[in-house]
Amino acid sequence: MLSCKEVASRASALIDGELSTWQTFQMRLHLAMCKGCERFIGQMRTTRDLTESLPASDAHDEADEGHISAILSQVHEGKQEGG
Questions:
Q1: What phi and psi, each to the nearest 5 degrees, are found at residue 65?
Q2: The pTM of the whole model exceeds 0.85
Q3: Residue 52 and residue 71: Cα distance in Å, rounded?
């Protein structure tokens, strides 16, 4: 079975779908048994999803700040619901 350190080092590859079938199986087996790693992977997925939803501009204006605030509110609400 994979160690937590190995899971952490392969987390991005798992999220991006870059692992082989066997490697994915090994990761899922570990995640089924290790709630700490399962939460870590979940946090990484959330981070990826949030960063992908941000506008791709360099300028920071009030609309960007409003968008970021809305995302942070969603994350905060998810934490309060146990997510």
A1: -65, -40
A2: no
A3: 12
pLDDT value at residue 79: 66
Note the pLDDT tens digit of each residue in 3-36. 999 999 999 999 999 999 999 999 999 999 999 9
The domain of 75 spans: 4-53+60-80
What number is the average pLDDT over the span 37-47? Answer: 94
b (16+ CB within 10 A) / e for 15-43: eeeebeeeeeebbeebbeebeebeebbee
Nearest to 70 by CA among 53, 83, 58: 53
Interior angle at CA 59, CA 55 and CA 64, nearest 5: 50
Number of domains in the chain: 1
